[in-house]
Amino acid sequence: MSVITLAPAALYQQVAEQLRQQIFQHELEPGTWIDELKIAQEFGISRTPLREALKVLAAEGLVTMKVRRGAYVTEVSTKDVRDVYHLLALLESDAAAVVAVTASDAELATLRALHIELEAQVGDAQQFFAINERFHMRLLALANNRWSDQVVADLRKVMKLNRHKSLFKQGRIEESLSEHAAILQALLARDAERARQTMQLHFANGLTATIQ
């Protein structure tokens, strides 16, 4: 069994990131009990930074702490998924409307470049998902609302517990790419209302693909 070497600075944060990635990659499946002793041994650390890391992940909604039972990877219900998508649709469609009006041509060009990258990854679901997220986070950054940014970042972490499955469904990647193209066209046209509507449709279709 290999031991992961971690630097001492902000150790619990590094542990949290290691576990976060294991959860996102479904190496730790939803509902899985987190064996603190085993993980501490694998990481070559004491259980103190591990427990601090678990508190961080619990605050993000990725881990659920159960009394006298320990920590579990959060299981996301259909209602949870609907609620998360609802909030993301509201926040990101609002951001799209703002960016359509306020972004510079150079800033919009960065979104166009990301869309081109997205087109090149249609055959690779994992890479497509990663670039898809970069597009959305770049859009939020351009909207320049740090409060919204933080809320969306946390919601997207929860969404990753379930969302990745939708991209493996037949035809969803192509549909998502088409929706991104419509969002980009609205942004380039400086049409705030169309940008809002196309983003809302993107999330509505994503939700349907996820819960079916």
UniProtKB/TrEMBL annotation:
Q: Which UniProt keywords apply?
A: DNA-binding, Transcription, Transcription regulation
One of its Pfam families is FCD
HTH gntR-type domain ranges (all copies): 9-76
Q: Where exactly are the transmembrane stretches of this chain?
A: none
Coiled-coil stretches are none
InterPro entries annotated for this entry? GntR_C (IPR011711), TF_FadR/GntR_C (IPR008920), Tscrpt_reg_HTH_GntR (IPR000524), WH-like_DNA-bd_sf (IPR036388), WH_DNA-bd_sf (IPR036390)
Q: Does the keyword Transcription regulation apply?
A: yes
User: Sorted alphabetically, which Gene3D superfamilies does this protein's record hold?
Assistant: GntR ligand-binding domain-like, Winged helix-like DNA-binding domain superfamily/Winged helix DNA-binding domain
Against PANTHER family, the record matches this protein to: TRANSCRIPTIONAL REGULATOR, GNTR FAMILY, UXU OPERON TRANSCRIPTIONAL REGULATOR
Return the protein name. GntR family transcriptional regulator
Q: What is the organism of origin for this protein?
A: Acidovorax bellezanensis
Its lineage reads: Bacteria, Pseudomonadati, Pseudomonadota, Betaproteobacteria, Burkholderiales
